[in-house]
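ESCALATION

Customer reports they have been waiting on this structure for their group meeting. Please prioritize. Original submission:
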Amino acid sequence: MASLSRPPVIASFSPLKRTPKPMATAGRPSGACAPSSPPVGRKLPVLLFDIMDTVVRDPFYEDVPAFFRMPMKDLLEQKHPTAWMEFEKGLIDEMELARRFFKDGRPIDLEGLKECMKIGYSYVDGVEDLLQDLRRNNYEMHAFTNYPIW
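Update from on-call: job pushed to the front of the queue and completed.
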């Protein structure tokens, strides 16, 4: 099996521009730190957000157990111990996840599971307004996740 390697997904990433270090000024010893100003047009701080359960509700904890018609405790006992994490890391594809989802190898409805996850995504309460306020105030924001592609 070919190994897939996928870094976390990062949205709106733009490389930081290096700015020259300020020269020491009178009254400061050489090498002392001097405050620097952000590049023109960039408002600090730059904000980084993890997506799951910070910006977006994670459907895994409620919707997925309901999809399989079992309590979370039972799901955790019956699912393969590493398949989901391997999928998140890009080490296995979704077809391999479907084959290995449960320890006992029982089949799953992969398309149904994907739809369950997609329907379950929603903003965490209050986050959408917060993000809009930050955007209106010109904060630079980036988001990242290690969650699967769907």
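Sent to customer with the following note: Helices lie at 63-67, 72-78, 83-88, 94-100, 110-120, 127-136.
Escalation resolved.
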